[in-house]
Amino acid sequence: MKRIALISTLLAGALLIWGTRDFPSWGDPNAPASRHVSPTYIEGTVKDTSIPNAVTSVLGDYRGYDTMFETVVIFCAGIVVISVLRRPDA
Amino acid sequence: MSPTNLHMYALATPLIGAFAVMVLGRYSRRAVAPIVLGVLSFSFAAALTVFLQVLSGGGFRYVVGNWLAPYGIELSVDHLGSLMQVLVSGVALTASVSALKSVANDLQDRQHLFFTLYLILIAGLHGLVLTADAFNVYVLLEIASITAYGLIALGRGRAIVSSFNYVIMGSTGACFYLLGIGYLYILTGTLNMADLARIIPTLQSGPALATAFSFCIVGLWIKMAFFPLHVWLPNAYSDMPDGAAVLVAPLMTKVTIYLMIRFMFSIFSPAYEFIQHAGVQQIVVGMAALGIVCASAMALGQKNLRRMLTYLIIAEVGYMVGGVWLANTQGLTGAILHIVNDALMTLCLFLAVSAIASRAGALDFESLRGLFRRMPVTMAALVVAALSMIGVPPTCGFFSKWYLLLGGIQAGQWLYVGALIFSSLVNAVLFFRVIEIAYFRTPDEGAHGSGHEAVPIREAPAAMLQPLVAAAAALVVVGLATGPLVQHVIRFALPGGF
Amino acid sequence: MDAILTEIIAKYNYWIYVVLMMIGFYAMIGKNNLVKKLLGMNIFQTAIILMFISAGVKKGGLIPIIDKQAALEHGVNSALINNPVPHVLMLTAIVVSVSVTGVALALMQRIYRRYGTLEENEILEKMDR
Amino acid sequence: MNLQPSTWPLAAVLISLLGTVPILLSERRPNLRETWTVLISLGKFAIIASMLPAVLEGGGYRFTLAEVLPGVAIALRVDAMGMYFALVASFLWILTSIYSIGYMRALDEHDQTRYYASFAVAMSATIGVAFSANLLTLYLFYEMLSLSTYPLVTHKQDAEARSAGRKYLTYLLGTSVALTLPAMILIYVLTGTLDFSVGGILAGKADASTVSILLVLLVFGFAKAAVMPLHGWLPAAMVAPTPVSSFLHGVAVVKVGVFSILRMVFFIFGTGLLADLNLGAVLTALASVTILGASLVALTQDNLKRRLAYSTISQLSYMILGAGMLTTAGMAGGLLHLSMHAFGKITLFLCAGAIYIAAHKSNISEMDGLGRRMPVTYAAFFMASLSIIGMPPMGGFLSKWSLVVGAIDGGQLLLVAVVLVSSLLSAAYFFPIVYRGFFARAAGENGPEEIREAPILCLIPLSVTALFCLGLFLWPSLALQLIQMVVSP
Asked: Do B138 and C52 touch (CB under 8 A)?
C-alpha cells in the first residue's frame, strides 16, 4: 500500500512540475489570468457595485452564486457534525 | 414566476425546504414528510416544464444576477442539462417516498437532520447539472459530497469508518479537480465553460493543458468510482441507511459521469481528447473494460445483496466511461442513455433492497429464502430490474447496452464489447442466484403438499411498495420510449463534432 | 544553463507548492493514522490555495482595494492591482476545506470513542471481530 | 405481401398476458380460476383463427408498438409462417389447459395459481414469437418465454427442480445473451435493419465467412431448438409436471427454438443466399449429428419422459434438416414436421402423464401390462408413436416423405439414409413400450389390477390429439397451403 502511495505521489508530482513548463512566470502582469476577465472586475468594481474592495465585490456580487453555495457548505457541514456527534450508540 | 426561471426554482425549492425541515422538523416530526414531498414534487414539476420548453424551443443559457458571462456565473439549460434535471428530481421524488418510511424506522429523532442533508444533496445535484462554470462545479461537488458523508455516517455499525474513508477519498478527488481547474485558470484566466472552450483551442496543446485535463478527469473518476479508483464505494454505499442509499446510489455516480461529459466536450473538445491524444483513448476504454470485468467478478464473490449491488454500480460506471471514450456517436448516445437507464435501474434495485430490508431484516443471501412467497410484488419488481441489468428487452437496460455495443463494434474495441457481454452474463448469474434463493422455499417449511400455502404474505409497507412499482414500470416505459428519447433529446444533447 | 536558471527563478514558487502537495497527498493515502491522513488533506488543500494565490500576483501590484474617488475621476489601471479572482476562489475553497475538516474531525471523534484507537489497521482488526 | 395495420395481432399476444390478472385475482376460487384459463385459451385461439382468412388470401396484418432503435421497432406481423405456428400452438394450448386441470387436481399440486399464471404468460410469449416482425421483437418474446417457463419447470421446488431450473436458464439465457445478441448486433451493423423480409436481408451485405459465423451463432443461440451439444437442458427439465413437459415439447418452448431458426433461415439469411454460398450443409450436418445421436441416447433411457425428451431432441433437428436441404420439398417437410411432431409428441407426453396419474410409474421397465388396464391411453400412445416414427396412416408420414423427397431432389442421398436410419431407431425405442404395455406380464404384488384409466379431463385431450395425428394425414390441406406460401412465396 505504501509503495503504491509513494509511486502515485511521485507520478502526480512529476506531472504537476512538468505541467508548469508553459506557465507564465511568477508575477508576470501579462499572464492570461491577469489580462482576461479579472481586469474588468478591478475596473468595474466601483462603477458597478460601489464597493472599493474588488475581492468583496467579486465574492458578494459577480460570483455571488458561488458564495451562496459556500454558505450552504458550512450549513450542511454543521448539520453533519451535529448528526454525527449526536449518534445514540457508542 | 417567469417561465425562464423555473430551472432555478427546481434547484432553490429543495434548498429552502432543507432549512424548513431543519427548523420545523425539530419541533414536530410530522412536519417533515409534507415539506419533503411538497418541495420535491414542485421541483419535479418545474424540471419537467423546463424540459418540455427546451424540447420545443431549444436550450438556453441563464446568467445569475444578470452579470454577463464570463464575468458572472452562467447556467446552461440545454437538452442534456434539462434531461438530467428531470432525472434528478424524478428519482429524488420517487426515492423520498420510500426514504420517509424507512428513515422513520431507522433514525427516529434524527429524521429532520437526515432530511435536511437529503434535500441539500438534491439541490447540490440540481446545481451540478445546471452549472456552466468550472469552479462552481467544485463547490457544488463538495456540497453533494459533504451531505453524502453525513448521510453515510447516519448508518449503522461501521458506517462512521466507511464515511471517514469516503471523506479522504472524496477530498482527494475534489483536490485533484481543483488543481486541474487551477492550472486551467493560470493558462486561460477564465472559469466559464464556454469561454474556456473558446480559449483552449487557441493555446498550444502543451504539458500544462494535459496536466490540467488529466487532474480534472482523475478527480472526477475518483468521485465516480471508476476502476481502479473505486475502493471507497462498496463500504460507503452498503453502510448507508436505506433511505440514503435509494438517493445516493442512483444519482451520485451518474451525475459525476454527466460532469465528465460536460468537462470533456463543453470545456475541452472531442478533437483534443480523441484526435490529439488518440493513445489515451485506447487506454481509457481498456481500463473501462477491465473495470467492468473485475467489478463483475468481485460482485460474484459477495454474499450480501446490497454489497453485490455496489459492485455492479462500479461495473456500470465502466460501461458509461467506456461509452463516452469510444469517441463515436453510438457510444456517446449509449452512455447518455445509460446514465438515465442506470439511474432508474439502480433506483429500482435499491428501493427493492430497502423494501426487503424492512421485512427480512438482513440482506445476506441466506435471509432471502422464500421471499417470493412472502413479498411477491417486491420480488417481481426486483426481477424486472434484474432483467434490465442483464439487458433483456423491452426493459431499458437492453437499449443502452445495444447502443454501447454498437459503438464498441464501430470503434473496433473488441475488448470492451467482450466485457459488456461478459458482464451481462455475470449479471444473469448474480441475479438468478438471488432469485433462485428467494424462489425456493425455506428449509423449515413442509416438504410438499398444500402445507406451504399457509405462509402469509407480508409485503413491505405501501409507502415503499408504490415507488418501487413505479420505478419498475418506468424501466419498461423508458425502454419502449428509447426511440423518441434518442431522436428528440439525446441527438441534440450530443456535443458538436458528433 | 541560463535558461534553466531563469526557469527556476520564474517558476520556483509553483514547484514548492507541488512539493507541499506531494507531502500532503502521500500522507492522505499512505499514512496509517487517521489524524495524519487528515493533516495530509489540509496540507494538500493549503498547497492548492497557495498555488492559486500566487497565480494572482502581479509584479509590483497593489492590493485590490480601489480608491473610490480616484477611480471615478481617472479610471483604474488594472495592471498595477493584483488579480482578485484567485482570492475569491480561495475564500470559498478555504470554507470548503474547513467544513470537510470539521466533518472529518467529528467522525474521528466517534471512531475513537467506538474503537479506542485512530490507527487504521487496528480499527480494521477490531471491526472484523 | 400486403399487410394491413391492425390491433388484432396485439390482442392475440396480450389476451393471455392480461389474462393473468383475473387468474391471480381468483386465487381462492379454483373453479373460477380454471374457467378463466380455459376461456382465455379459447379466446386466444379464436382471435388467431379469425386472422386466418386474410392470410390464406395472401395478405396479413401488422402492428407497430414503438420504434425503439433507428429502423427497428417492436412490431408484430401475421404472415403464413407465423400463422401456421400460432394456430398449432394456440390449439394445443386449449387441450393442455384442460389436461392441466385434470392433472393438477388429481395430484393435488401446490401453487396452482402461480402455475396457471405462468402458463398464460408463456403462451403470450409463444404467440409473440410467432407473430414477431423483426429479430428484436422475436428476441424479446424469446427471453420472455425462457423466464416465464422457469417457474413451471421448477414447480416442485425441491433440490432436483432447483438444479434443473438452473440448467434450464443457464442454457437458454446464456446462449441468447452470449450468441444471439452479438449475432443480432452484427446483423444490424451489416444491414441497418432487423426486419424479417421474404428472401432475407443479408444478401449482398456480408461475405461467406460472416454469414456462416452468423448461421452458427444463431443455430446455437436459439438453444431452445436443442441442437447438440446444447441439448442438456431438455432432459433435465423433465422434473416438471407432465403438462409442462408437454407444453415444453409440444406447444411451445422447443418449437419456438426451431421456429426461430427457421425464421432466420427464411427471412434473415434467405434460402437463396444460403444456396449461393453452399451453407445448407452447415445446417444439415449439425442436424444429422443431433438426429442420430439423440436417437441412440433415447434407446438407453428407462425413464419414459427422458426417453421422450431425447426423442424430441432428435425430431427437432428434422425441421432444421429440412430447412438446410434448401429444396422446396425439403423445406416444406421440415415445416410440416413442426406440426406433425407437435401433435404426436404432445400426445405421448399426455399419455405419460396419464400413466403417472393412474399408476404413479415413470420407468418403462415398470410398465408391464399397463396397456390392458388403460386401453385408451395406450391406443393413443401407439398412434402417436406411429406418427413420430413416420408410418402411414399418421401425419408424421407426410412430413418424413416430403423430407425424403427433398433430399432426393437435392441429390443428398446421405440425408435420405439419415432419415431412414433414425426412423428405424425411433421404432426401436417406441415399440417396446407399447409391446410391454399390452403383452408383457407384470411382476410383483402391486400389480396393475387396481389401476384404472386417468381422469376424464386427461383422457379427452390425449384422445383428441391422437385423433389429430390421424386427421392430419387425411386432411393436411390447410397446413400444406400455409407451408406452400412460406416455401414458394
From this structure: no
